[in-house]
Model the fold of this input.
Amino acid sequence: MANKIILKRGADGNVSSLTPVSIGEPIWGTTSNKFYVASGTSAGNFEWVGAPILDEDAMGSDSATSLATQQSIKAYVTSQVTAQDLDFSTDTGSGGTVDLDSQALAFTSGEGINITHSGQAVTFACEDATVSNKGVASFATADFTVSSGAVSIASIANSQIDNSNIAVTDGTTSSNIALGATLTFTDVDNETEVTQSGGTVTIGLPNDVTIGGDLTVNGTTTTVESTTVSTADVMIELAKDNDSADSVDFGMYGKYNDGSTTRYSGWFRNQDGTFTGAGTTYTDAITFYQEYSKEAPGTTSSLIDTSHGSYALAPIECSAVNGATLDGGTF
Done:
């Protein structure tokens, strides 16, 4: 039969009143299965130096007085790590997870961003911007201002602009005006009038107009509302296009009212250069007429309808007729 060593034993609650025989005396607490050793010889001088060893992989007992084995601790930690993941969210939304036991969290760089790491330090660095790559750009303080992330364009010199001038031309001569300079529209006395309002420039004619060169008017009718017409010409040309063929009548007329009807009076030359009156044909005759009320003399080949009932020759009053033949005709 083997020898046995049996330690003094009893309820753990009695340890505080038990007096050791000597320092190092061992005893066993039967309530909590604790091992005590005397640290002195006074009552209660027992120190707890150990606890029972438990082999529980799930650590289910939740004991405050028992120790777990290495195998139990490893099995428990492994089960917990395998079941855990890292949750994260980004600008695209939430719900991202990383299995801590089998996956790695990856940082992916985009255009203009570089991502590096050294040990456990992850560094995000912006790239310099280029013409083909987005990134960080700097601005010349003389050209731009930045406040709270907002960039504003400052005053930019013309030398920094590709097209810093406006070309002004009259079709023959061209001049450049720098941006920021003033373009002036100038009128010509008695010829043009220039006004500006709200950025709109209006060029028109003044009330009194002086034409320095020739004036050509193309149209059917030219109306002059002047009360007096003065001309420096010593001759007034009529039917200017009648030189290649004698195809139109020409003359001058005025209108009056006889009290009830508008009538016309004047003179004309027949387009074929003849006039037949009182049975006699006159060559290159100038005819004076009056009391003509059919219509205003026209501008076509025939000015006056001499067969109209209102047509009548006009008397001529003068002080003398020199160098002429007066022929009363025959009957």
